[in-house]
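Continuing the batch. This is chain 6 of the set; chains 1 through 5 are on the previous pages. Same settings as before, nothing changed between runs. Recording input and output for traceability.
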Amino acid sequence: MLKKVIKYTDYNGVEREEAFYFNLSKAEVTEMELSQQGGLAEYITKIVAAKDSQAIVSTFKELILKAYGEKSDDGKRFIKSPELSTAFSQTEAYSELFMELATNAEAASSFVNGIVPTVK
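Output for chain 6:
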């Protein structure tokens, strides 16, 4: 799980700094791997090598929104839903994160590594 603190200015002009949580379960990663011929990692490598900016943008957006959720107070669940993802996508925090990942390869790599489960 990745806890990402994001600074942004909301739509009322208020500067904010909030923590957001991102995680992909083993099942979600497996599903994503199997949904792409050759696997997700190979797909990302191909679109980056081809400089397919439309596919890169689409893939990052999907990763961010698929990984976004809220931790339950007891820590037993990581709650995700289309409504939560949509609500997050409508914030400037999402915009700040998206721009950081789209313009900084190191930040993008760190984000991806942070959201995938650790293999034990």
